[in-house]
Specification:
Layout lengths: L1 E3 L5 E3 L19 H15 L7 H13 L1 H8 L9 H18 L8 H21 L6 H21 L5 H8 L3 H11 L34 H15 L3 H12 L4 H8 L3 H22 L1
Organism: Streptomyces fildesensis
InterPro entries: RNA_pol_sigma-70_dom, RNA_pol_sigma-B/F/G, RNA_pol_sigma70, RNA_pol_sigma70_r2, RNA_pol_sigma70_r3, RNA_pol_sigma70_r4, RNA_pol_sigma_r2, RNA_pol_sigma_r3/r4-like
Keywords: DNA-binding, Sigma factor, Transcription, Transcription regulation
Amino acid sequence: MTITTAAQTTITAPTTTPEPLPWIEDAGKVAPADARELSKLFFDRLQSLEEGTREYQYARNTLIELNIAVVTFVARRFRNRPEPREDIIQVGTIGLIKAIDRFELSREVEFTTFAIPYISGEIKRFFRDTSWAVHVPRRLQELRLELAKATETLSERLERDPTVPELAAFLEITPEEVTEGLVASNGYTAGTLDLPLGGDDSADNDRALADRIGDIDPALEGVENLLALKPLIAALPERDRQILNMRFGQEMTQAQIGTELGVSQMHVSRLLNRTLSHLRSHLTASA
């Protein structure tokens, strides 16, 4: 760097090159205290590296390995679940990766404190989505459990199956809510579509129910999202639309966008995060 004083004296200041990141052969064997310190170093360097480079991938992958013990720690809370432990660890690792991608040292909070809610939330979402054969709202999932307990209690007391009004009175809810909960309970388990249809027509005996059911076009959801996003994107400021187009339309890196606009990569990252958060919140609110 060259500095010119008032007397027009040129002074050349030495430029400093960041020290290369330490090479860690097996990050999973690093002690917890050392892992915390190394994580700070890698997070600090990650913010200045360009996405897609070898150095960026090494820093990000090492952060995952350094903090995989946090996933194991959170997974122990769910050791009584019937799902395989390996599946829980794998899902929790997805939460860890999301936390790494969203963490900033400026938050002034330990990464483990920041990451645990992401990991735990991802695991709970996994349970919620896989335990039910059909996805239903959490309110109805909880109502199903209450109805099951109430049915068992009333059956012993009445020595018969309780009616809908009796269940409603016992739980202090309306009969309509009981009916809604009972219908939702049908989504907890599902029969196979491979069973033969049967019936009077011998031609149907060898055909499965799946043969009569059409498939949903996989592109349908993308079309719905596109239609919902178009007015939201159109309402964005010109620069935000330009950045979105360069990032996702032209598939430019954040560094390339920064060079094009004359700003830093970090500034581009902040603008993108702000724009995406804005779109996500409005898209969710309209759902």
